[in-house]
Amino acid sequence: MGDRKKKTELFDQLARVGKALGSGKRLELVDLLAQGERSVENLAATAQLGLSTASAHLQVLKQAGLVTTRKDGTKVHYALAGLDVARLYELVRTVAAERIAEVERVRDDYLHSGRSPAASALRADSEVTREELLARAAAGEVIVVDVRPVEEYAAAHVPGAVSIPLDDLARRIDELPVDQEIVAYCRGAYCVLAYEAVDMLQTLGRHARRLQDGMLEWRLSDLPIDTGRAA
């Protein structure tokens, strides 16, 4: 039957991963790190955490082997330990959405908060699948706009995508033609930036749609990516 003590120790070790992910804030940090390497300061600011609190959460993730660190002078940068961690995060999201009824309601409340009923009603026919985007971008039929922060674009982006962070979109609207469809994307299925970008683009007279999910799902589907900052 085996050694009960050793079996208990084995499952306790496996549980370290579950315990590390057993925090909404730590899951949010994993979500951000799925976009690429980030400094502690950047992660804390983006997740609206104090620096010491963010560092403590990151240490828990590191002790479970889910993230790695790199020092650059006095700064510490974190990254996911591997693409398998991103896949685990995506699986946690999927299981939660399928098994917990509240997830879908809370997700919709978040993604459509502050949007007009008319804008929210457009969501179904304002989405583009990854396959459609690949084909239409290759044919030059759409302009792809990455509305994430520039450091996330530099870490990985859809080939040919233009980097225009959401906060800069209104100011840079003249860079986008009025006679061609625009597809905006951001971090993933739970990212609000692309929703807000599409609303803004349509208000400013552009024909815009949103990638159905985002960069996390794009990478996990082994689709081509580019790296580096915009020229």
From TrEMBL:
Residues 6-100 form the HTH arsR-type domain. SMART domains: HTH_ARSR, RHOD. InterPro entries: ArsR-like_HTH (IPR011991), HTH_ArsR_DNA-bd_dom (IPR001845), Metal_resp_trans_reg (IPR051011), Rhodanese-like_dom (IPR001763), Rhodanese-like_dom_sf (IPR036873), Thiosulphate_STrfase_CS (IPR001307), WH-like_DNA-bd_sf (IPR036388), WH_DNA-bd_sf (IPR036390). One of its GO terms (molecular function) is DNA-binding transcription factor activity. PANTHER family: ARSENICAL RESISTANCE OPERON REPRESSOR ARSR-RELATED, HTH-TYPE TRANSCRIPTIONAL REGULATOR KMTR. PROSITE patterns: HTH_ARSR_2 (PS50987), RHODANESE_1 (PS00380), RHODANESE_3 (PS50206). Residues 138-227 form the Rhodanese domain. This is DNA-binding transcriptional ArsR family regulator/rhodanese-related sulfurtransferase.
